[in-house]
Structures
1.
Amino acid sequence: MENRILIIGDEILGEQGEAANRFAEILLCREANRPIQFSINAPAPQSLKQLYDRASADIIGKKAGRIIMGLGLKELKRGGNDYSGVFSLYETLANEILSKTLAPLHFITIPEDMFPMAPSQLTALNECIRGLVAKDEKRIKIMDFAAFVADFKEKQLERGKFGRSLYTEEGSPTSICNTFMALFLYDFIKKELK
């Protein structure tokens, strides 16, 4: 369905999927006359491998007109994988979706502050995610939240002080981060829907 947006994400979208739900509410409030539906799987309890195994039912079967994916953080935090192993799983899932749907795919990059134990792993993963555009430049767009957050932090440094932190010391998004992400998603999707 052209007017259905499927959102799949892990902790990047909030511990309870708060950013995804706020985004949906903002879009529904701002675009009251737009016929739109949401299917939100955030935070997705499945691993990337499980999402791939269940893709036909949980992703492809949803018949979404647009798919937003923010994944990879959970696998990095759980350990056992470095960014290349995580990206390999992510890319396999992306290839499956690309081959079996016609929906535009939007991949969210992950701010380094969400994984303070090894931010370089996120930097490398984000570069790989950005490279997914080469698979299908017409259907794939990168929602570069990592760059958006870096710009925000730079502007805060220019002010000389921080209002409120976007993340806890462990890297979990705060309430303001979830709102920030929801607004970022709304601004991006609003341009895509025109």
2.
Amino acid sequence: MVTRASSPDQKISSLHSGIERYYTQKVLQHGATALGVDWTCKPTQELRFIQLLKLCNFDQPFSLNDVGCGYGALADFLSRRHRASKIDYLGTDLSKAMLEQVKPSYGANIRAQFVATASIPRVADYSMASGIFNVKLAQPVGLWNLFIKKTLTEMNATSRLGFAINFLTPISRDMQVIPELYRTAPEVWIRYCTKQFNATAELIADYGMREFTLLVRR
């Protein structure tokens, strides 16, 4: 019997299914907490939000796509830290179980919607993704890089002004190798974003954790 090789789209679809299962298990185990989205604690989770949100101009209303939104922690953070800002927020996630943990309201100035989907269903001023590229599970690096490129291409296409993402930095000698984690040098994705999207990429790497944030502006 002859078996046909899977197409790139089929491989990405299978990868999405694995991610969905992983994070569904996490949120069912830990609930709407940092551990429920595989972060170690709320303070570091919110420190990442601060870096990502440096992309946005809070002096005027804007729309925001939160890719891999989990249980809506970023929307909650915005409602507490930026109460005076008018934000049209859309959170998307692969896991329906995650979205079942979302709070019903985020205050008068934040219009929040949530959709279970593998794609980004609208164009917004900004898009951001916190941590979705860090846990590759057992996927080969080549396929994970394809997943990142496909996601960044979609984020760029659905962002009028720019998008923000973060990655783990390469390990140092005092760190344990964890094969399930994806680590990369900043230059790899700075080069990709600037050349592929004709954009500028600002590197933020001085916030006390072994990771970095890229602010990509069109």
